[in-house]
């Protein structure tokens, strides 16, 4: 029940009666600026309000400068207020529908659970019903999230190092396999040339024997000629047998040569896939450690931008879900998950597929029913979907990179 005595009976729209940036306590300014504004946004504001030279200073200097100058109402704080209201208009409207203080916390928690901490923080702290207790709750949550993000970056670096190490080992293995295969192919080619030379010599001998047989037949049918002719026929049959054996050996060597080339092709494709996954994961790690300030997300290969799309992950390892969620959140996307029929009901999958903009399916950890249900649904409704061969974080990172690239191509 809502406490009327505490909140009053006033009515308001999503902007009327909102708290302003300079009305927040000094303790809240630092987490608000650090969470709700990116470094590139701060630089653009500094360039717009002051000058380009000011905007080229360090990230920490700019953060400190804007925090220390937003505690009073003037041109800078008004500009930041207007920018944040425009950036988080949707969240402000959602929170603006709340008329009871007790309803603020559940809506706040829903946003935090799906990784929308920045928009939720601004909409909550500027809400007319926000009091000191709610402010303290929001401050504690954002403070702990910053620690978790730092730990996540360390884990990403460790995973990237592992992937790079595996990639190096695979490349060395491929180099050895290619070298060995080339040696084998060269040896087989030399043997094949020798066999072809022997085959040519046998064919030439056969031709001579046929001509000699024909000559003897023309000369007469005396016993000596007949005996020699029989001997020549036997020799010709023997040569034909040898020729068949050589033809079979030639075919076997050609099959072995083809098999070696197919193995090399398979290893090359596997290496290429590992490189693509490593690049995708490396780009996400670089993004989380140092946001790109010189280009837009649409043109930077290190900063995949999902443009707010809802990404549904079906299947995969349960222990990897939070890591999937974190990667999608960093790429400006909304994450949801269905375990592929392990505990979640299959009927629930259809509803989640309807609401998703793109679907990523880890095909190594999913029930047959969920797999075919997802595949059939996405084809019927022309829904973006990708199947990844494993539940690893690098495969999932590459899939997100592919979705972002597809979005960029469509926008072009």
As a whole number of angstroms, the C-alpha radius of gyration is 36 Å
Q: Which percent range fits the helix content?
A: 55-70%
User: How many strands in all?
Assistant: 4
Query: What characteristic shape results from the CA principal axes?
Result: elongated
Class per helix and strand makeup: mainly alpha
Mean pLDDT value: 80
- Number of helices, where a helix is a run of at least 4 consecutive DSSP H or I residues: 15
Order of helices and strands: HHHHHHHHHHHEHEHEHEH
Major sheet: 4 strands, parallel
> What proportion strand?
5-15%
Identify low-pLDDT runs: 1-15, 285-300
- The CA-CA distance between the termini, in Å, is 51 Å
Kindly report the spatial arrangement of strands forming the biggest sheet.
2-1-3-4
What descriptive keywords fit this protein?
412 residues; four-stranded parallel β-sheet; elongated
List the helices and strands and how they pair.
Blueprint: H1 4-7, H2 26-36, H3 39-49, H4 52-55, H5 59-68, H6 75-87, H7 89-96, H8 104-113, H9 117-125, H10 132-219, H11 223-289, E1 310-315, H12 321-330, E2 334-338, H13 346-355, E3 358-362, H14 368-380, E4 384-388, H15 393-411
Parallel strand pairs: 1-2, 1-3, 3-4
Account of the 3D structure:
The protein has 15 helices and four strands. It is mainly alpha-helical and 412 residues long. It has a four-stranded parallel beta sheet, sandwiched between helices. The longest helix is centred in the middle third of the chain and has 88 residues, at 132-219.
